[in-house]
Amino acid sequence: MRKLKVAIIGPGQIAEKVHAAYYATRNDVELVAAVHHNNIDKAREFAKRNGIPRYYTNADEMYEIEKPDIVSVCTPNKLHYGNVMQALKAGCHVLCEKPPALTSEEAKEMLEYSRSKNLILAYNFHNRFADDVGMIKEQVQQGALGEIYAVKVKALRRSGVPGWGSFTNKDLQGGGPLIDLGSHMLDAAFYVMGFPKVKKVTAKMFRKIGNKKSEGTLGKWDPSKYEVEDSFFGFIELEEGGLIQVESSFALNIKETSIMNVEFLGDEAGASLFPAQIYTDRKGELTYLLNRGTADPNRHQKSIKAFVDRCLGKPVMIADAEQGYKIQELIGALYESAEKGDSVLL
Ligand SMILES: NC(=O)c1ccc[n+]([C@@H]2O[C@H](COP(=O)([O-])OP(=O)(O)OC[C@H]3O[C@@H](n4cnc5c(N)ncnc54)[C@H](O)[C@@H]3O)[C@@H](O)[C@H]2O)c1
After folding, report:
1. Where along the chain do the CATH 3.30.360.10 domains lie?
2. Which of 57, 73, 75 to mutate to test the pocket of ligand 1 (most atoms within 8 A of CB)?
3. What region holds the Gfo/Idh/MocA-like oxidoreductase C-terminal domain (predicted)?
4. So what's the pLDDT on residue 249?
5. Residue identifier of the C-alpha nearest atom 21 of ligand 1
6. What is 128-296+328-345's CATH number, 3.30.360.10, 3.30.420.10, 1.20.120.80, 3.40.50.1980?
């Protein structure tokens, strides 16, 4: 059988640790090229380290010569849209890093174009691929929690401004912890709940620490170039009456180093995702109905596996372009609300 040819655009840390590392484990795919539009050295070094035979600064040339089947887009957020559209126009299936883009208009165009060409466009919202999430989704569908009327989405770091990349640059990333971390946990929450319709969002964001401190658990950053929010708080009202509360931070004076989780509050039981737990109260005593112990550490690999399998025609779940668009639309509305200081209707 012919191997699927893969090109990687944006040769940074996620491209190397996750995309290239996973593709290299499969004998039905073949890494053929790495692209960095304006840094040949980065492309070359990345290709060398990962056993990729060729590297390019000109993506047109790469598409012309390599004719890849699959493209992984791992650039800073602002460049997702252009690179995804170019890959789709070249007839490739695309796995794009999260968030899908900078705006919902871009994400919509990416969705519509991929659909019109019958190409697969998936986003690496890897958390939903954890076994924990699958277990909770199944229990939710079976009614184990009763009516879920409130959800708490937490993507919090006490002092975790990324010390690499462009995560403090508003122009390149579109925002801070909400678009970077919150998008992950919002996807997991919406996936479990079957993407309920949103009615209204109300949010507030702050920049209080990232522009003063310069070092944390994920390295050093330049506080004078810290342009994004460092904490974000929002309420998402659902059309059917439920409420989702979202909290996300790169820097916030909480006790924990990091909290990445979603809690579902139902009238029969509550659940949290990482690790999968379902619990209820019996006469004042906390009682676990399910307790997985430790969270699935292999969600990244499972996300990319699902994308490749889908490209090979298997009917597996992926974080598809339509769901990516919905998350992008929600993030856009949350930022709009925080900027305007008023609620936004969807
Ligand atoms: N799924 C996840 O858990 C996860 C984790 C981290 C990052 N990400 C996402 O992955 C993307 C990259 O993040 P990262 O942590 O790897 O950052 P990074 O800075 O390590 O990697 C980005 C790479 O893109 C390169 N780049 C910049 N301009 C380019 C261009 N014009 N053409 C090609 N390459 C270009 C940069 O030089 C860098 O090598 C972001 O969208 C981020 O949100 C996802």
Report:
1. 128-296+328-345
2. 75
3. 137-344
4. 98
5. 12
6. 3.30.360.10
CATH of segment(s) 4-127+301-317: 3.40.50.720
Q: Whose CA is nearest to atom 38 of ligand 1?
A: 12
Residue-wise pLDDT for 261-314, tens only, equals 999 999 999 999 999 999 999 999 999 999 999 999 999 999 999 999 999 999
Q: Report the alpha-carbon distance of residue 217 to residue 224 in Å, rounded.
A: 19
Number of neighbours of residue 213 by Cβ within 10 angstroms: 15
Which atom number of ligand 1 is nearest to the Cα of residue 39? 37
Distance in Å, CA 11 to ligand 1 centroid: 7
Residue 316 Cα to ligand 1 midpoint, Å, equals: 26
Beta strand segments in 124-230, E: 148-157, 198-206, 215-216, 219-220
Q: What pLDDT sits at residue 324? A: 98
Mean pLDDT, all residues of the chain: 98
> pLDDT tens digits, residue range 230-245?
999 999 999 999 999 9
Question: What confidence category does residue 1 fall into, taking pLDDT thresholds of 50, 70 and 90?
Answer: confident
Q: Residue 184: enclosing H or E segment and its boundaries?
A: helix 183-193
| Ligand 1 atom 30: residue of nearest CA | 37
Ligand 1 pocket mutation pick from 13, 14, 42 by most atoms within 8 angstroms of CB: 14
Chain region(s) in the chain for CATH 3.40.50.720: 4-127+301-317
CA atoms of 271 and 291, how far apart (whole Å): 10
Task: State pLDDT tens for residues 100-115.
Answer: 999 999 999 999 999 9
